[in-house]
Amino acid sequence: MKYNTEKKAALLAFLKENSSRAFTVDQIVSALSPSGDGRSTYYRIISDMVKESKVKRIADDHTRHTTYQYLGDGHCTEHLHLKCKSCGRLIHLDCEASHRIETEILALGSFSIDEGSMLFGKCAECKGGAV
Description:
Layout: H1 6-17, H2 25-32, H3 39-51, E1 55-59, E2 66-70, E3 81-84, E4 90-92, H4 95-107, E5 118-121, H5 124-127
C-alpha cells in the first residue's frame, strides 16, 4: 500500500507548479529540503510517480543526467511532447497533431512509438524567435 506523505505532497506540488521544466533529484531535494534530508525518500517517491505515469523520466545520453518532469494524471500518454534541450521547456502537442505525426511514422513500417514520446530540439525562445 502506498501512503501519501508530506514529502510526496510537497514533491507533487513542486512538480505541478513547475510542469514546464525537468529537474534532477538533487535539484528537487535542494528546492524542497535545503538541508539535504530525505534524499533517498525523494528517489523512492519519484520512482513511484514514474511508475504511476505522473512523472516522466528523461535520460540525457550525453551528460548521463536523469531529470524528471510532471506529466499529470495519465493524459500525457495520449500525445507527443516537444522538449527544448536548452531550457528544458516541455511543449504538449495536441492529440490531432500527434496522431498525424504518429500515422506518418507508422506508415514507414518497422518502427513503433512509445506512448507520450518526446521529440528533442530548441524552442522558439531559445532559437531567438518569438514564442
